[in-house]
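Re: the 190-residue chain
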Amino acid sequence: MESQNRKVDNMNIQRSKIKKERKEKCINTNILLLILTLACILWVFYFSFGGALGWVWNPINIFAIPYFGLHGTVQEAWGNLTLSNTFSDNSIAFISLVVIAALIGVQIVMLSLAITEVQNRWLKDFVFWLTNDRVIMRYFGFRMNNRININSYNESDVLNEAEENHWKKWKEYYKSDLSFDEWKRKYLKR
């Protein structure tokens, strides 16, 4: 009985250590995820606006816009905007700026969705792997079956002790001569 209690105490200590380690790993993972998210957000805006301004090679601006006769970057469109030009000359520059602004918005949304999907996949695979019971059990060197058996044995042992204490109090109160097994069969219907 005492050895079982020691085993259970050791299991509880190990569980508390596991919970503490899980919490620390999750905090570290959340910090890394926050840093990754901020870096990705900065990268998305740099790539989108850099492509529109001509700092970064952006395939959407380079291939799509000139194909329709529009300007590929903000500098090209802005350079063609002058007050001396007629409306038809300026309309291409205005349309180019509107299309570039729309493409910036579409790129931000699409890249943000892609990065969010990557982060969700990373969270599912890495964080759940990190806190998986199987991995933790391998780390502590015991099997789930042993843990379940010890827990179920401990729970039934605690239940038996409670029943026995109740039987003793019942026996004193009613001044009965029923044995524990007879009492269980008669009153607990086991």
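The radius of gyration is 35 Å.
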